[in-house]
Amino acid sequence: MRLPLRPRLSALARCCAALLAALCGASSSAVTAAAPGGHADAPQMSVKRLFAPASDVESGVLRLPPPEATPTRSHALVFVDAFAPQSARTGVVRFRFQHGGGALRLMPLGRDASVWRGRLFAGESEIPLAGGDALVARVTEQFASQSAFGLDESTRVLELELPAGECEVEFFAEVPPGTAAVLVVDAGADRNDGPALVAQLASRVNRAGAGFELVVRGESRPARGVVPATTRGVDVTGATVTWSDGVVEHARSVRPMRDGAVRVGFASARRGNAVVRVDGLVRDSRGSQHQRSLFYLARISDGARIAGGAVVHAVNAASDWIDCDFAVSHADPGDALFACAELWAVAGADFRVLGWIGGIATIESHGRAPFVRLGFDRGQLGLGEGERLVFRNVRLHERDGFAPLDVREEVVPEMRVALPNRREAEPRGPLDWAGPAGIASVAVPEISSLVPPVGGHALVLSHGYCASSNPWPLAQFSSDAWPYANLGQNLSNDVFAVDLATRAAQFKSYGIIGHSQGGNAALHLHTFYWSGLDWAGSGRLMQCVGSPLEGTPLAGNLAAFGQALGIQCGANFDITPDGAAAWLAGIPTASRAKLFTHTTTFTNVPFVYDYCSIATDFFLSDPEDGVVEHSSGHIVGAQDMGLRTGWCHVGGMRDPAQTGDANRNATMNAQGAR
Amino acid sequence: MTMPQMSKIGLSFACAAMLAAPTVAQTDQWCFPASSITDNGSITRTVIVPPTADVRTIVGVRVRVAATHPWVGDLSFTLRHPSGVEVVLVDRPGIPSVGFPGPWGCGGDNIDCWFADAATGVAETTCSVTAVPVLAGSLRPTGALASLKGRAPQGTWTLIAADAVAGDVGQLTAACVEITTAPDCNLNGVDDAVDIAAGTSADVDLDGVPDECGCVADLDGDGAVTSSDLGVLLSAWGTCGGCAADLTGDGQVLSDDLGILLSAWGGCGNS
Predict the structure, then answer these.
(1) A19 pLDDT band (50/70/90 cuts)?
(2) Is A581 within 8 Å of A573 (Cβ atoms)?
(3) Shortest Cα–Cα distance, A477 to chain B (Å)
(4) Closest CA to A551 of A515, A577, A519
């Protein structure tokens, strides 16, 4: 298959895509994939109606965690500016900041950033920051190759020690005026003890028109460290939101809270991805102030809401399938979303959880008020004496991005069918969806014409987000391995999964080995849709390496730098910690159990380096592979295959690309289901 | 005897006579030989159902098919009656698909089921990711086996098993056709007892045989089965479409027709 070439990225874009494409690279080609919609003439794909046992609810696997569970931290200060004319051929850009003292790392990003000449003024001192190979005493300069991200340009990181005080950095370069420049400043000597700016959304549900708030605070240690973080006060010095169309709005309110946190409010008349920038001063344990900036990718949605009613009824007299129709409002019939609800048996003050139902569903109306239909099999639960069924934690999410649309604590249904007695219920497999009554369809993008049918059974090797090529070395796999390629794309997990299934539909059945977001897409596909994955034979159905299953802190920065520098791949809410949490809250244990997760990290060479990519090390907590933190690459319920040292996310980092590990590839190849 | 004079006992007797007659409905099972199914091809297996002493018609057919195959969506099975009439039992279950089970049809393993018109489950759309065999129990075929009703049972029956996709291979481990027949001496394709009960045929002597059957072999219509009838039969020997000499209704005039004629030699019974 030959794909249409996309216009070559500008040098600047390619350079900065180094960061922005950190989940795998820049692009040279693309395939148009229509956004999923829900209309009758579109091609259909069958969705699974999910049922999870009570244990999944009791363990919290299917609960939407509170926003404070997925904060974004920043130890860095980031400037975004543009070169101003200095002479006929050169431009200049200046950045000023307050340094709290100690070690300082500077990383310029932009076109030819590795050869920008510059100087740093600190108090009375002037320190030249020569470009190219001219290293300067007192400054350690490391070139950070960006070839890992499919780029042929590098940047550099300057490390130096400075006393506390005002700093100013100037860069000169032969670039056209207006050329974008970014400077990342890491002003904490030891980042694990250094103060961080921390933010989280005030609410999981953020609707267009309703406004949204971030809760911002200071912290003296990452929450993922062994020692609990200490909350510090913060002075918010600036807060803006940049929408996907480039419109920038300032915060409409900044409200200090009693606990030292600050609530920063924004008007949100728009929907879509919102890149929030917060600047603040955070005090460390000695009382010194440190400037920090934080980029937060929020998703502002607008769509269906839970109307409050529900009807439970049998499909027909001959069927064991029971439909649960949840009334919704602000919804257009035909649109698809994700819905779920916990099932509880209530008798007076007593209650017990029965299970959980969910799935991607189309909004229906059939001449009455719109509703979303979920369901379960009669054999999956039974009620005891005097018990009645209620739904709790009913949720609606966007299908594309999984941002929560609405959450309702309890919905009491109208029962038009008697549920089996508790003793008579015959427990059945929690994820046996067989039977036409349990099957519904939603519209999917029309791209199936791309795949001529060949039959057979395959091991699909998937790349990740925004990849420039498929990273798996085919020579390390057997002849039935097939490299999925939809290069240079920024896809939600849902669109990615549907695209994967549509292209792999040329095979009767397959297992998937997914790199990076390819692993997320595989899990999404298996959980929510019927596909060739369901017909694979014995073996490991899904295996993933370096997948941001719980998101990556890079996502917000990627979105921000993408907006600033015009990088193509851009914001992806699914791979933010918030987006991942919302997504994972819809994935039952039975699906997770079919996923085998691998993570890697760098070889720690004391006093030499302790990172995969010095560029992304600014934003990640160890151990990490240059893109994904170890702790985010494994999830509860999946098969944790461990952390392997000496491999990084992609090529061009300190250690080889994790997809090139021949030993692991041989094992995954041998164990993979087809 | 006139109907108003029939007593309750008489009715009971009549029924008893019908049930006791040697020509009640009977069910026989005829099995095809087991065989591997050619990958991306088809096989035909046959079984010969011999003629019966009396003229019988099919009143019911069920077919059992047992096959091992890792992807039943590749398979189709067709039953062919000796007359050439075919009934598709199942044709690549799961195809066409609107999403489930997918473009390649049902990917489940193995078949061990009875195809029967009366079944509630439909073979074509039955599929599960967990059940093995995936097609099991009693399932309604794609075509109607009822289309074989009223036809003669004897002759060569054929089962055609086809595999539409290369790669996955399977074996036909068992296949049988279960044929229920009933006497049909008047060759109208209806069980004689049904004819009598419905009043389509008279049975004045209450022997359970339609009165007109006495003359089934009276091919020249002279009220007796004689050498002239034999001549008519012999002149039609071989293949004949719907000719009177085809006493068994199988489309051919052969020894089984001759046997019927000879057994009726002489008078025409009830006429």
Answers:
(1) very low
(2) no
(3) 20
(4) A577
Letter for the amino acid at A503? R
Confidence (pLDDT) at B70: 96
Q: Is residue A360 over pLDDT 90?
A: yes
pLDDT band at residue A317, thresholds of 50, 70 and 90?
Answer: confident
Q: How far apart are CA A582 and CA A401, in angstroms?
A: 9
Contact with chain A for residue B3, Cβ under 8 A: no
List residues bridging with A313 in a β-sheet.
Answer: A323
Q: HSE-up of A192 (CA within 13 Å, CB side)?
A: 9
Q: Do A534 and B129 touch (CB under 8 A)?
A: yes
- Give the per-residue SS3 of A404-432: EEEEEEEECCEECCCCCECCCCCCCCCCC
Neighbour tally for A290: CB within 10 Å: 26
The pLDDT confidence band at residue A58, using thresholds 50, 70 and 90, is very high
Which residue of B71, B102, B125 is in closest CB contact with A436? B125
Please say if the pLDDT value at position A123 is more than 90.
no
> Under an 8 A CB cutoff, do B103 and A455 touch?
no
Please answer whether residues B183 and B58 qualify as being in contact, where contact means their C-beta atoms are separated by less than 8 angstroms. no
Q: Quick check: A530 and B125 CB within 8 A?
A: no
Query: What does the mean pLDDT of chain A come to?
Result: 83
Give the C-alpha separation, B94 to B133, whole Å.
15
Q: List b or e across B32-51, with b for residues whose CB sees 16 or more CB atoms inside 10 angstroms.
A: beebebeeeeeeebebebeb
| More confident position, A407 or A303 | A407
pLDDT-derived band at A519 (thresholds 50, 70, 90) equals very high
Residue of B nearest to A507 (CA): B104
Q: Which domains does chain B have, with CATH numbers?
A: 26-183 (2.60.120.260), 194-267 (1.10.1330.10)
- Which residues on A lie below 8 Å from B167 (Cβ)? 455-457, 508
Cα angle A491-A496-A498, degrees, rounded to a multiple of 5: 135
> At residue B199, does pLDDT exceed 80?
yes
Phi, psi for A148 (deg, rounded to 5):
-55, -30
